[in-house]
Amino acid sequence: MKALGIAFSLSLAALVAGCGGGGGSPGNTELEYKITLRADTKALPVNIANAGPQIGTSAPYTTVLHVGATEGGKPIVGTKEAFACNLEAGLRTGALYYLDGDSEHETEVQVGGQTVKIPNAYRSVVLDSNSGGNSFHFHAGDTRGTARITCSITNPRDNQVTSASVDIVVGDAIAPAAGMPASVNFQAQAPRYLGSRNNPNSVLNSISVQAMVRDEVGQWVGDTTSPNLQVYIHGGSASAGARLMHDRQTGTVIMTNTRNGVANFSLSSGVERGVITLVMVADRADNNVANGIQDPISQRLTIPVVNGIALKPLAIAPDQSVTATCNQAVSMALVATDGVPPYTWSVAGTMPAGLALSSDGLVTGVPTLQNGAGAGTYQVVVNVTDYNGTTASTNLSVTVEAGDCKPLAIGDSSIAVTKGTHFAFAFSATGGKPPYTWKALAGMPSGLTLSDAGILSGSVSTVGSYKMVVEVTDKDGIKVVANVTIEVTEPETP
């Protein structure tokens, strides 16, 4: 006895049709040997559940076969290895099993950390004749068809062989919709993506695709003389310039025949990266798309299109930061790793005033502070995108130091002059951004003028203490107001 497998994993429904019969080899015997073979169930579903063999009413994919033999009308009893039973046709439709609990007919496997015994699947089994017969089992597989099982017994006196057969039909081959499309599936050539046309990284820009058309019990649809599958490019961000190819057909739509349920074609990319969406359509009405599609059965397939293949994910190098000083030029390059170069950088938000991030990752510019205020550290989100369109982000620390950038302030608060004496006094300011523009807002004594450059000039004819309000404006339009005291005194006497 040779085991065909350990766990006969089966997947579709099965039907059983029995045909009895007997035969034998030439020879002479005083008492004739006769053999019978029958199946309990003559209709099994295709094993679409991949269920294992079982016994009883909860075993829809398994049937019991009974074999018996007589000599001169009397049961042949107590004979070791009397019956040899063989699955001689329809090997893909199922397998034979003992299901007798004998450890020789089982294999131990690990399932979920536990040891379980799985019945072995066989092509041939050998059985004793206990009380004139024995039983064994046929378990349906995932393929529609007819399994022929033949059992034989040999008369030891003259070696005459007597046999009987039964046919087990797996799946309803005569159902009205048998063989009509019920599902369309696909398999793209590894690695299941395309390179864009003319990509610089030698990624193939054409791949093969297999479309698979099955009926309602998962069997391949039959071959046809007319096209039974239509494929077209439905769209996608990389669909421009893409085309399908099959035999002499090329373009955005093709029609083809399946062979044993499978059709082969190729997809070629355009110049853009992104995705290409294909739609594959069969017609359940008559398995023919050339005469119009009445009952469409369709499936979509999305193929990525890339410019290169990243060996490691795109990342931004850690611990990067920028330090700049107000009114001083800065230039610093940010660093990305892996992905597919070249990289494109961008800012999600706003850089500090005077600074910018270029698309090639350079932080440049001359930082400024409004009236000397705003020095400190800013967190700026920066993005980097590689050639495939993959994006990585990080928080970049940008520190702006004040340096010489001070707040605008007026430096003088009091002036002493002599009555009747002409004078000129230049106001001073610090910080801000020169040049400065000056203006008297209130309290300027009669006889004095204040120029835009901050020159207070003239003479005052009356002794006293005057409170003058002055305003200075820097280049950025920052304004500061201050009170200035003008003390006017009598001239000294000789």
Task: Give a structural overview.
The protein is mainly β and 494 residues long. It folds into four domains: 3-170, Sandwich (Immunoglobulin-like); 183-306, Immunoglobulin-like (Sandwich), CATH 2.60.40; 315-401, Immunoglobulin-like (Sandwich); 409-489, Immunoglobulins (Immunoglobulin-like), CATH 2.60.40. Helix content is 0%, strand content 49%. The protein contains no helices and 42 strands. The strands form twelve sheets. The protein has a five-stranded antiparallel beta sheet with strand order 2-14-13-6-11, with no helix packed on it. 32% of the residues are buried. Mean pLDDT is 88; it is low at 1-29. Keywords: Signal. Residues 1-19 form the signal peptide. InterPro entries: Cadherin-like_sf, Ig-like_fold.
By CATH, the architecture of the largest domain is named Sandwich
SS strand fraction: over 45%
The tally of helices reads 0
| Rg from Cα | 47 Å
Which class best fits the helix and strand makeup?
mainly beta
Q: How many distinct domains? A: 4
Query: Helix fraction?
Result: under 10%
Mean pLDDT: 88
CATH class of the largest domain: Mainly Beta
Q: How many strands appear in the DSSP assignment?
A: 42
Query: Describe the biggest sheet?
Result: 5 strands, antiparallel
Stretches with pLDDT under 50, minimum 5 residues: 1-29
Write out the strand line-up for the largest beta sheet, numbering strands in chain order.
2-14-13-6-11
Going by CATH, what is the homologous superfamily of the largest domain? Immunoglobulins
Q: Could you give the distance between the termini?
A: 144 Å
- Report the principal-axis shape: rod-shaped
- The CATH topology of the largest domain comes to Immunoglobulin-like
